[in-house]
Amino acid sequence: MSLHRPDALSGRAAIAGIGATEFSKDSGRSELKLAVEAVHTALDDAGLSPADVDGLVTFTMDTTPEITLAQAAGIGELSFFSRVHYGGGAACATVQQAALAVATGVAEVVVCYRAFNERSGRRFGSGVQERQPSAEGAALGWNLPFGLLTPASWVAMAAQRYLHTYGLTPEAFGHVAVTGRRHAARNPAAYFHGKPITLDDHAASRWIVEPLRLLDCCQETDGGQALVVTTPERARDLRRPPALITAAAQGAGRAQEQMTSFYRDGLTGLPEMNVVARQLWRTSRLTPADIDVAILYDHFTPFVLLQLEEFGFCAPGEAADFVAADALPLNTHGGQLGEAYLHGMNGIAEAVRQLRGTSPNQTPDATHVLVTAGTGVPTSGLVLSRDGAGAPDGSSDSAPGGPPDGP
Amino acid sequence: MTAMTATGGSEERAGAGGAGEGTATRGLYERLKAYEGRPAATAGVGKDPVNAAMIRHWCEAMGDVNPAYEGPDAIAPPTMLQAWTMGGLSGHQGRSGAYDELSALLDGAGYAAVVATDCEQEYLRPLRPGDQITFDAVIESVSERKTTKLGTGHFVTTRMDIRANGELAGTHRFRILKYAPPPARRKGPPTAQPQPQSQPQMQSQMRVQVQALAKARRPRPVINRDNAGFWEGVSRHTLLIQRCGGCRTLRFPWLPGCQACGSPEWDTVEASGTGTVYSYVVMHHPPFPAFDPPYAVGLIELAEGVRMVSNVIGVPYDKVRIGMPVRLEFRCVDEELELPVFRVDETLQRPVSRGEG
Ligand SMILES: [Zn+2]
């Protein structure tokens, strides 16, 4: 990852397998068991066995240590294990970590996983009422005595300013919700399979934290998702066509906080995602016009709009119209609003399906897919490509697409 | 901090004195009453300093997996307060004669049975590994004669003040009923008289109740060495903004260095107290016991240019708007917590908002 130059990771690793448990509201089993099941399913998908795995990556928030997963999944020695912090912001970064490991030979087959009983166990939506006086706890602590206690409320604070700045109403967020649920309705794996919504449904749903309504908030889910990363050479010999990692990036902004970046200039952008966007465009040599499908992290609808603007798909303040126009296949699995809230990992799997041609809402000949991780937190992103696609003609290091570089 | 009541095994029937309220009884009550204010234990010293091993054992016994109680920044579970004062197998030290005399007096009057009824704990500061515990206890009150389902007797309340390194860290009130079981129930001996402190059931009730009531108060500020100066300022009714000693940039939230230039040098400036609503939300769901939804939370941009999250008062929750001028006030939200809040003040000239979007 670089702030100023293309990096050397492009095309040096691939996603060879994807696997998930069912997505439910009460899995009836442990988070460890969910993780093991997802990992086994992903390895089966790739045509690999647990004995092939020598690296594991997960989230710092995950309750299943790499070593315990290895024990329970039949995985032996590990030469690489890593965890990424900042909640859902870790999702694409787990793949970046895996890609770094396989590209450098530190490991050969790395499995990224995330599993939790986020609905039947600890629900993030239930909020935070105390934190320890660490630096991290103190940062969130400024909000607590005043009653700003939930992820929805932290997003809503920025969303309100966004609406105000561009003269919009909360209905602007409805297009994202409707799009996700439309796709979920046709996805048998989605929790909201067969249950599309309308803009009227969105506008009539109850307030959670104004200006966010119930249908602006993703569901909460029990489940697990795993991804198998290896070298392109090895991936080509496996069961499925590889999804090449064309670019992978992490990003944190100036004056970054976790969900409560209220103190930096403006609340209408996601500067951390701008860091990711610049690097993905620079390294992939792609522009927004080259992207066939975007899987944009949608724990809450407003930040999907901000992401479209940060990546340069449309101008600031215009993303709601952009989504309404259906100009870009977006969250074709149904997103976390419609399929499942798997901390962004299920979105990466959907990007792989698009490149394989197996999405429930397939975009014909999808070649380049953009995937992003958690918003409002330090985050990450990926551009995944069909094997052999390469970069489009006419690109160059000096003329990347997307938004202008920041300072 | 937290008052609680856990009903341990008796159900008080208030005012059910009934017969036998004779002179002899009154005389006894006066003698009992004389023990109020007398020490129950003096200069007690915790047998062990607060330590990680006992915290771990406690958490395992309680099934408490709160991460606050482990790791380098661990605190002791607040409800362990009394545990640090216990004598353990080797017995108590420092128990006063007064308490034993009172017990003997009640025994002699026929109230030989005892049951723990409830306790209350207040927490003034967290206990951390290494804290040296000292404590004193006083007989706080002896009730009039009461008749309960268990029998007739007197409630005795003791209050223990627990200190960490000499600083008051919490208080523990413990109430027992010394009673005479009614004859009809005297099939066996007056039921067991365990040291109430060692009853696991009691402890678990305490824990549940303490948590339930703790939630009825607003979340506490998260105060550490890097931001304590802000809250000290609040206690003096000043809102302090940090100012970099290198580049003079004002900053909020409080941090030990400057994001603009990295300088560790800083002082503070007192906010003028005026500002505007930069953004706001209205909280509807989920409900939190300490708050009454719907309620508004604002992001206030101070006249000095920094922002902070606070509450907007003076208008209903549905009338808060971006750009409203506000003025600082300090508001006590409970007996311990005072917060800087902002009252909408349309008489203020609207300051120009910093930047845009
Ligand atoms: Zn400075």
Automatic annotation (TrEMBL), chain A:
Disordered: annotated span: 381-407
Domain Thiolase N-terminal, first and last residues per copy: 30-230
TM segment ranges: none
Top-level taxon: Bacteria
Thiolase C-terminal domain span: 256-377
Low complexity compositional bias, start-end: 387-400
Record-given protein name: Lipid-transfer protein
Organism from which the protein derives: Streptomyces nigrescens
UniProtKB/TrEMBL annotation, chain B:
Region (Disordered): 1-22, 181-206
Alphabetic keyword roster: DNA-binding
Pfam families tied to this protein: FAS1_DH_region, OB_ChsH2_C, zf-ChsH2
Keyword DNA-binding in annotation: yes
Domain ChsH2 C-terminal OB-fold: from-to ranges: 269-331
Domain ChsH2 rubredoxin-like zinc ribbon: residue ranges: 231-266
Segments of skewed composition (Low complexity): 194-206
One GO MF term: DNA binding
Span of domain FAS1-like dehydratase: 45-167
InterPro entries: ChsH2_C (IPR002878), ChsH2_Znr (IPR022002), FAS1-like_DH_region (IPR039569), HotDog_dom_sf (IPR029069), NA-bd_OB-fold (IPR012340), Thioester_dehydratase-like (IPR052513)
PANTHER family: BLR3430 PROTEIN
Protein name: DNA-binding protein
Organism lineage string: Bacteria, Bacillati, Actinomycetota, Actinomycetes, Kitasatosporales
